[in-house]
Design brief:
Protein name: Plastocyanin
CATH topology of the largest domain: Immunoglobulin-like
Oligomer: single chain
Organism: Amycolatopsis magusensis
Number of strands: 42
Low-confidence stretches: 1-31
Mean pLDDT: 85
Largest sheet: 5 strands, mixed
Keywords: Copper, Metal-binding, Signal
Number of domains: 6
InterPro entries: BlueCu_1_BS (IPR028871), Cupredoxin (IPR008972), Ig-like_fold (IPR013783), Ig-like_OmpL47-like (IPR058094), Ig_E-set (IPR014756)
C-alpha cells in the first residue's frame, strides 16, 4: 500500500470525526526554505488567511484550524491541493485535516517541494466547496547558472483614427518572459521621465506624440536591452477612461444534492464598462488557450473544471482575472415525478404530561430518491414560511404548531405536514451539549483496528447538565451509552451518537466510521500487494468518478473488479461487476449511487467484447 493511499485513508477517518491523525502530524518536519500558512475558523465560505505567491523549492506547509484562529465550535476543515484539474501543478500531495480538538490542537505542518506554476487548494468537506483559491509559484533567486536576459515587449492599444492616432487615450501593456531564473522586475520610462516599476497597463491621455522606453531584469541579475515604442494621442469626444471593465461569471444547469452539475454546465460571462465601453471578453477553460467569448460556454465532460475570465475596454484598461470552479457528473436514468418525503421530530425533556420542559427542538428530515431534495421549509405558529437549515429551538411557554413541506430538484412538492407540542417553564438553558467520539485500539498500516476497536463517547454541558448519551452501532436500535463500547466483529462499522441535557436540548447527531480486521502474523496484512492505486475506479478507460478506496484487506475496488482478467463475453464481465459491487454495498464500502456509476462505466466499456460476441 502506497504512502499516498495511507495518507488519504487517514484524512477520510479524521473527516468522519474519528481521533486519527494524518501521517504528517506525527512525523518530524525538516526545516524548509520558506513557510506558507493557511488558517481557518468557523466560516465555511473562505479560509481566514492564505498565501497568494511563493517561490519554487522546499516549503513548509502550515495549516491551523484552532481556537487561536477563531474556531470555538470544533468545526473540521481540510487543506487539500488539487491533484486533477488541468492547468494546475499536481506535484505536491497536501491533504491535511485539522480541528481544535485533535492531538495537535488544530495546527499541522507538512514539507513539500513546489515548482514554478499555479496550485489550486480547497476544503474537501461537503458543504465547504466555497473554501478554495490558488497561488502562483515563481522560480526562486539563484536558481541555476542563468546568463540569458529576459525578453520584454510593449503593446499599445486603444481606439485609433484613420491616421493611426489614439483617440482620447492609449494603453501601454508590457510583457516580459524569462526561461531561466524568472522575471524579477519590469520598468518603463514615459517621455523622458523617471524609470518606474511596471505593475499594470499604463494609460496615457495627454494629447501629443509620446515615446515609452522599457526594460526587464531577471532574478539572476541579467538585464534586457532597452526597447522603445512611439505613438500619438489626439483629443477624444469623451472624458478620460482609466477604469477597467467589470466581468462576472454565472454557472447554471441542473444540480444534484452535492452541488454538481448533472450532464452539463453552462457558463455565462457578463462584462460592463461605463467609460469607453467593453472591447473584448475572453475565457480560459481548464488551462487551455485564451478564447474570445461570444456565447455561454457549455461544458459536458464529467469531472472538475476551472474557467478563468477577463475583459478589456476600448481604452485598453484590463480587468483583473477572475475564476469559477464547478464539477460535472453524468446524468442519471429516468425522469423524477415523485415528491420528497418529509417528517418532523420534536425533541427535548418531557414531563409526565408529555410537555417539553423549558424548550423543544424541531428537527425536519426530508428524503428524495430521484432528483434530490432542493429545499425544506417550515411555518411556526402561523408565521411566515422559512427555509429550514438546522433544528429550530422553541422556548416560548405555551402550545405550538409547526407546519412543514419539501420540494425536490425536479419541482415536485410534498404534502404539507404538521406537528403540535407544548412547552412549560424550565431553567432557561437552550444550548445543547457538546459531543465527541474517540476510537482506540491497535491499528495496522491500513488504519484498520486489529481484532478489536474501543469506542469512547464524551458529552459536556455547562447549563443544565448532561441527561443522557446514546449511540447506534451499524444501524441497530439506539442504546444508552454508559461505558466504552468494544467492537470485535470483523468488517466496516458506523457509529452514530447524540446527547441531550436536562433541559431537553439535543446535540446534533454525529457519525464516525472505522474497520476491524482479524489479527495475523503482524500489522499491515495486504491481500493485494500490487494494488491498482488509481484515485478513481476506471474500467476500460472509462472513469466512473467513484473514489478507488481500499476495501479493508489491502485490495482496492479496481483490484476486485479485475478488468484485465479473461471474460468470455462483455455480458459476463458486467454481471461480475454487478455481483462484486453488490457485496461492497452490503459491506458498507460503496453507496448505492456510487455502485450505479461503476456499473454504468462497466456497461460502456469494451471489456470482454474482443473475446466473443456470444452471450
Amino acid at each position: 500500500m502506497s504512502r499516498r493511499m495511507l495518507a488519504a485513508l487517514g484524512a477520510v477517518l479524521t473527516m468522519l470525526g474519528l481521533v486519527v491523525m494524518p501521517a504528517s502530524a506525527s512525523s518530524p518536519v525538516v526545516a524548509a526554505a520558506q513557510t506558507l500558512t493557511w488558517t481557518s475558523d468557523e466560516n465555511v465560505a473562505k479560509y481566514t488567511s492564505a498565501p497568494t505567491t511563493a517561490v519554487a523549492g522546499e516549503t513548509t506547509i502550515v495549516f491551523e484550524n484552532s481556537v487561536a484562529t477563531g474556531n470555538d465550535t470544533g468545526m473540521l476543515h481540510t487543506l487539500t491541493f488539487d491533484m486533477s484539474t488541468p492547468g494546475y501543478n499536481h506535484d505536491a500531495a497536501v491533504n491535511i485535516t485539522a480541528s481544535p480538538s485533535d492531538a495537535n490542537n488544530g495546527r499541522h505542518e507538512l514539507t513539500v517541494t513546489l515548482t514554478p506554476g499555479k496550485y489550486r487548494y480547497f476544503c474537501a468537506l461537503p458543504g465547504h466547496s466555497s473554501m478554495q483559491g490558488e497561488f502562483t509559484v515563481t522560480e526562486g533567486p539563484g536558481g541555476g547558472d542563468d546568463t540569458t536576459p529576459p525578453t520584454v515587449a510593449a503593446q499599445i492599444t486603444g481606439t485609433q483614427d484613420a491616421d493611426g492616432n489614439y483617440v482620447g487615450s492609449a494603453s501601454v501593456a508590457l510583457t516580459a518572459t524569462d526561461a531561466g531564473s524568472g522575471v524579477d522586475k519590469v520598468e518603463y520610462q514615459l517621455d523622458g521621465g523617471a524609470w518606474t516599476a511596471y505593475t499594470a497597463p499604463v494609460s496615457v491621455t495627454t494629447a501629443g506624440a509620446h515615446m515609452v522606453h522599457y526594460r526587464a531584469t531577471d532574478k539572476a541579475g541579467n538585464a534586457s536591452e532597452e526597447g522603445m515604442s512611439s505613438f500619438t494621442v489626439v483629443e477624444g469626444g469623451g472624458g478620460e477612461d482609466t477604469t477597467p471593465p467589470v466581468v462576472t461569471a454565472e454557472v447554471t444547469g441542473e444540480q444534484d444534492a452535492d452541488g454538481n452539475y448533472v450532464g452539463s454546465a453552462s457558463v455565462a460571462l457578463n462584462a460592463t464598462d461605463e467609460g469607453s465601453g467593453v472591447d473584448k471578453v475572453e475565457y480560459q477553460l481548464d488551462g487551455g488557450a485564451w478564447t474570445a467569448y461570444t456565447a455561454p460556454v457549455v461544458v459536458s465532460t464529467p469531472g472538475a473544471h476551472m474557467l478563468h475570465h477577463r475583459a478589456t475596454d476600448k481604452a485598453g484598461n484590463a480587468s483583473a482575472e477572475g475564476m469559477s470552479s464547478f464539477t460535472v457528473v453524468e446524468e442519471g436514468p429516468g425522469e423524477d415525478t415523485t415528491a420528497p418525503v418529509v417528517a418532523a421530530v420534536i425533541e427535548g425533556t418531557q414531563n409526565s404530561d408529555g410537555a417539553y420542559v423549558g424548550s423543544a427542538s424541531v428537527k425536519l428530515n426530508a428524503t428524495d430518491e430521484g432528483s434530490g431534495v432542493d429545499k425544506v421549509e417550515y411555518q411556526l405558529d402561523g408565521g411566515a414560511w422559512t427555509a429550514y437549515t438546522a433544528p429550530v429551538p422553541v422556548t416560548a411557554v405555551g402550545d405550538h404548531m409547526v407546519h412543514f413541506r419539501a420540494t425536490d430538484k425536479a419541482g415536485n412538492a410534498s404534502e404539507e405536514g404538521m406537528s403540535s407540542f407544548t412547552i412549560v417553564e424550565g431553567s432557561g438553558d437552550v444550548e445543547p451539549p457538546k459531543t465527541s467520539m474517540a476510537v482506540t485500539g491497535v491499528q495496522n498500516s491500513n488504519w484498520a483496528y486489529v481484532d478489536k476497536a474501543t469506542v469512547t463517547l464524551t458529552a459536556t454541558d455547562t447549563g443544565s447538565g448532561v441527561d443522557k448519551v446514546e449511540y447506534q452501532l451499524d444501524g441497530a436500535a439506539w442504546a444508552a451509552y454508559t461505558a466504552p463500547v468494544a467492537v470485535t466483529a470483523v468488517g466496516a462499522h458506523t457509529v452514530k451518537y447524540r446527547a441531550s441535557d436536562k433541559e431537553g436540548n439535543v446535540a446534533d447527531e454525529r457519525t464516525g466510521t472505522f474497520t476491524v480486521v482479524k489479527g495475523g502474523s503482524g500489522p499491515g496484512q495486504d491481500v493485494c500487494p500490487d494494488s491498482d492505486l488509481r484515485s478513481t475506479v476506471i474500467i476500460g478507460g472509462i472513469d466512473s468518478q467513484v473514489r478507488n478506496v481500499d476495501i479493508g484487506n489491502g485490495c482496492t475496488i479496481n483490484d476486485v473488479i479485475a478488468e484485465n482478467a479473461e471474460y468470455a463475453t462483455h455480458t459476463k464481465f458486467v454481471r461480475h461487476v454487478k455481483a462484486v459491487t453488490k457485496e461492497l454495498v452490503t459491506n458498507g464500502v460503496l453507496t448505492g449511487p456510487n455502485r450505479d456509476r461503476i456499473i454504468t462505466a462497466a456497461v460502456n466499456s469494451d471489456v470482454g467484447m474482443h473475446t466473443s460476441n456470444a452471450v
